[in-house]
Specification:
The longest helix is centred in the first third of the chain and has 14 residues. The protein has a 9-stranded antiparallel beta sheet. Strands 22-21-28-26-25-27-24-23 form an 8-stranded mixed beta sheet. Strands 38, 40, 41, 44, 47 and 49 form a 6-stranded antiparallel beta sheet that branches. 7% of the residues lie in helices and 46% in strands. The relative contact order is 0.10. A hairpin with a 2-residue loop joins strand 11 and strand 12. It is mostly beta strands. It folds into 4 domains: 62 residues; 158 residues, no CATH class; 110 residues, no CATH class; 155 residues, Galactose-binding domain-like (Jelly Rolls).
C-alpha cells in the first residue's frame, strides 16, 4: 500500500466522536449524500478498513504512538489518509491510526466517481450549479465535432447530459434543418429524419430534435431549409425564439418575423398572412410543396395556382410566377413540384378572384430584422435561456427532459440534451437549471428546443450507423416535426478536390492489430515526416511466421468520408521489403472492400500512392483500416517499419 489512502468508518470507541463531528460539518456545508457498501461516505474519506484479526488502535501525539485498545474482527473504520511512517498506517480520523499488517486488515476504496462526489476539489470533479460531474467522457466524432457525455449528481439526484460542440469555422461542417417526411404535416423520429437526409449532400454526423409542434405535426414557428422558408411563425412574439444560420454561415438566436405581400397583374399589393399554415378566416396563405400533397383547405375560398416560379422564398427579395388557373369554391388544391398556391378566405378570397390565367404575380418577402435577411437555416424554439452572456430566470415550474442549442463567445454551436423522468438514470431539469447549465457550459446565447419525450440525441457510431444515444423518457424516440442536423460536407474545386482524412498532427489514438506476426506497433512520430511535424509509423516483425502475415493500422475514432471518392491517397516512406500495401473500407451496406496501394513496396523513401475506390460503394463510407501491410511469401518475411503521411480522399 505505497499510495496515500483515506478511510470510512463504522464503529466505536474514540474514533466515533471525530466521525460524528465530521458528518455534522459535512451536513452544515451542504455536501452531497453518497452511500457506498451500505454506509455514508464523508468529506475527506478515501476508503474504509475492515478488521479481520485483532490489531491495535494507536493514538499519535508529538510523533509518538500511544496504545489505545485492541480492535476486534468485524469492526470497520473510515480511512482518511495513509502514512508510510511506523511501518505504514491508515489514518482513521481524530489522530487515530491502524497499522497495515497483512492478514489483520482489509482496505477497500470506493470508485473514483463516488470519491468525486464527496471530495470534488481533491479529485478534480467539475462543479456545476446542478451538481457534481462524477463522470465525463469526451469523444471526437469528426474534425470539428466533439461529443461530451456527463453524469451529474446533485440535490435533485442523478442527471445525464449529452452535448455536441460544433466548430463553425470548419468549412466542411454545416448545421442544417430536417423536416419530418420532407413535409410540414406529420411527424417522424429524429433518427429516421437523419437517415433520410444522410448522403444527400454529405454525411450526417449527429442530430437533435427541433421545434415544438402542433397536433397535425406542423412546427410552431419559422423554419428555413437550405435558404427556403418552409413555414412562418404561428406563436406570439413574446412566446417564441428562433435559432438560425445566417447567409454567411454564422449562428444566431433572435425573434425575427417575415413580412410578405403579393401583387397580381397591375393591381395593388395585398398582405400574405403566412406560408404553409392552416388558412383561417379572411386570411391569405401561400402554400408550397413542402406543406403536404394538397392545401388541406375547405371549399369556402379561392385558390390561385402559380407556375413558372422564379426565385427563392426567403426574406431578401421577390419571387415571381404566372397564374396557371383560378379555382373558386373547391379547396384542397394539389401541390405540385415547381408550383405555388395562393389560398384565400373571405376578403382574401375576394382579392384572389380578380386574378386571370396568364397574369404575372410578384411575391415580396422581407424579414423585420436585417441580420436575418437571406438566412440559410432556421427553426423555432421557446425560451431564451441565456442572453448577452447572462443566464435568464423563469417563473415556470416543472422538471423535465430538455433540449437546448447555444452559441459560445467564439461563435461555435453547442447542442445539449438532458434526459429526465427516470430517477435511476436522470431526473431532468427546470428551465432555471437548464439556463445555468448552458451558461456554465460556455453559452453566451442559448434557447430551448422542444423537450420532454421529444428530447433525442442521435450520433453516428464507429460502425457507421446512426444511433439514438440518450434514453428518451417515453422508452422510445418520439416522432417529432423537425430536427437540427450536423453534416460533414464535401468541398470541390476545378473538378477535383482532396479531403484530408488525417495529417497525424493531432492526438487521436491509433491502434495496431494483425495476423501471424511476432510484433506490431503503430505510433505518431517525428522520425520521418513528409508534411507538417508528424507522421504515422507502422512497425512489424513477420520473421519465422507461417501463412499470410500482416500488420494493420486503424484509428480509434472512425474515419468518415463525406461523399463517394474516386481514390484514397497517401504518402508512404517505403522500407524496400516488397510487401503488399492495402486498405480496408466498409460501406453503408456493411460490405467490406479491400483496395490496393501497391502490390510490392519496393522503394525506400517517400512516394505518393493512390488506391482506386469502386464506383458502386454505398454511402456513408468508412475507412476502417487505412493501412494493411502484408506478406504471403515465407522467404520475404522480415522486420521493419514504414511511415505514412497526408492520408486523403480524392474526388474527381
Amino acid at each position: 500500500m505505497g499510495k496515500a489512502k483515506n478511510i470510512i468508518r463504522i464503529g466505536i470507541g474514540a474514533v466515533l466522536a471525530a466521525w460524528t463531528a465530521l458528518q455534522a460539518a459535512e451536513a452544515d456545508a451542504g455536501a452531497n449524500v453518497v452511500y457506498w457498501e451500505g454506509m455514508r461516505l464523508v468529506q475527506g474519506q478515501i476508503g474504509k478498513l475492515e478488521i479481520v484479526k485483532p490489531i491495535n488502535l494507536w493514538k499519535r501525539e508529538n510523533g509518538a504512538l500511544t496504545f489505545v485498545r485492541v480492535l476486534q474482527p468485524g469492526e470497520q473504520y473510515r480511512v482518511y489518509s495513509y502514512d508510510e511512517a511506523f511501518g505504514g498506517q491508515y489514518g482513521v480520523g481524530g489522530g487515530y491510526y491502524v497499522t497495515n499488517i497483512k492478514g489483520h486488515v482489509v482496505y477497500k476504496t470506493p470508485s473514483k466517481e463516488k470519491l468525486k462526489l464527496v471530495n470534488p476539489g481533491r479529485y478534480g470533479a467539475k462543479q456545476l450549479a446542478v451538481g457534481t460531474v462524477v463522470k465525463e467522457v469526451s469523444t471526437r466524432i469528426a474534425s470539428g465535432v466533439e461529443k461530451e457525455e456527463m453524469e451529474i449528481v446533485g440535490t435533485r439526484g442523478k442527471q445525464h447530459v449529452y452535448k455536441l460542440d460544433i466548430d463553425t469555422s470548419n468549412e466542411r461542417l454545416a448545421i442544417e434543418t430536417a423536416l419530418s417526411n420532407d413535409q410540414v404535416l406529420g411527424i417522424e423520429p429524429v433518427l429516421e429524419q437523419a437517415k433520410r437526409y444522410d448522403g444527400r449532400d454529405g454525411i450526417v454526423l449527429a442530430a437533435v430534435n427541433g421545434d415544438y409542434f402542433k397536433e397535425d405535426g406542423s412546427p410552431t414557428d419559422l423554419m428555413v431549409h437550405r435558404g427556403e422558408i418552409v413555414m412562418t411563425n404561428t406563436t406570439p412574439t413574446a412566446e417564441r425564439t428562433i435559432f438560425g444560420i445566417s447567409a454567411d454561415g454564422k449562428p444566431m438566436i433572435g425573434n425575427p418575423d417575415v413580412q410578405i405581400g403579393v401583387r397580381i397583374g397591375e393591381g395593388g399589393s395585398y398582405p400574405v398572412d403566412g406560408i404553409n399554415k392552416p388558412r383561417r378566416a379572411h386570411q391569405l396563405i401561400l402554400y408550397t410543396p413542402y406543406f403536404a400533397a394538397s392545401t388541406k383547405t375547405n371549399a369556402l375560398g379561392t385558390e390561385v395556382v402559380l407556375t413558372n416560379v422564379q426565385g427563392v422564398l426567403n426574406g431578401n427579395g421577390t419571387v415571381t410566377g404566372t397564374v396557371k388557373k383560378v379555382v373558386v369554391g373547391q379547396g384542397n388544391e394539389p401541390l405540385q413540384p415547381g408550383e405555388l398556391v395562393l389560398s384565400g378566405h373571405g376578403r382574401a378570397s375576394d382579392y384572389l378572384r380578380q386574378a386571370k390565367e396568364g397574369d404575372a404575380v410578384e411575391i415580396s418577402l422581407q424579414y423585420d430584422q436585417p441580420e436575418w435577411s437571406g438566412v440559410r437555416e432556421a427553426l423555432g424554439g421557446r425560451y431564451r435561456l441565456v442572453a448577452d452572456g447572462q443566464a435568464q430566470s423563469f417563473a415556470i415550474a416543472g422538471v423535465h427532459p430538455r433540449t437546448a442549442v447555444g452559441i459560445d463567445r467564439n461563435g461555435n454551436v453547442m447542442l445539449v440534451v438532458v434526459d429526465g423522468r427516470q430517477p435511476a438514470h436522470s431526473q431532468g431539469m427546470t428551465l432555471n437549471e437548464l439556463a445555468k447549465l448552458m451558461h456554465e457550459l460556455g453559452a453566451v446565447d442559448a434557447m430551448t428546443l422542444d423537450g420532454g419525450g421529444s428530447s433525442t440525441f442521435v450520433v453516428r457510431q464507429p460502425n457507421g450507423q446512426l444511433k439514438v444515444e440518450n434514453k428518451p423518457s417515453d422508452g422510445f424516440a418520439r416522432p417529432v416535426a423537425n430536427a437540427l442536423l450536423v453534416v460533414y460536407k464535401e468541398t470541390q474545386e476545378n473538378g477535383e478536390s482532396e479531403e484530408v482524412l488525417d495529417d497525424f498532427e493531432n492526438e487521436l489514438k491509433w491502434n495496431a492489430s494483425g495476423v501471424n506476426y511476432v510484433g506490431a506497433a503503430v505510433e505518431r512520430t517525428t522520425e520521418k515526416v513528409r508534411e507538417g511535424k508528424q507522421a504515422l509509423k507502422i512497425s512489424y516483425d513477420f520473421r519465422g511466421m507461417p501463412g499470410t502475415s500482416g500488420v494493420y493500422a486503424s484509428r480509434e475514432k472512425a474515419i468518415w468520408i463525406s461523399k463517394r471518392p474516386q481514390a484514397i491517397g497517401m504518402w508512404v516512406y517505403g522500407d524496400g521489403s516488397g510487401h503488399w500495401l492495402r486498405a480496408q473500407l466498409q460501406d453503408g451496406s456493411g460490405r467490406r472492400i479491400w483496395i490496393d496501394f501497391a502490390r510490392h513496396v519496393d522503394w525506400i523513401g517517400w512516394k505518393y500512392v493512390e488506391a482506386a475506390v469502386p464506383s458502386d460503394v454505398a454511402l456513408p463510407l468508412m475507412l476502417e483500416m487505412p493501412v494493411r501491410y502484408m506478406e504471403t511469401d515465407i522467404g520475404r518475411k522480415n522486420a521493419g517499419a514504414i511511415y505514412i503521411d497526408g492520408l486523403r480522399a480524392i474526388f474527381r
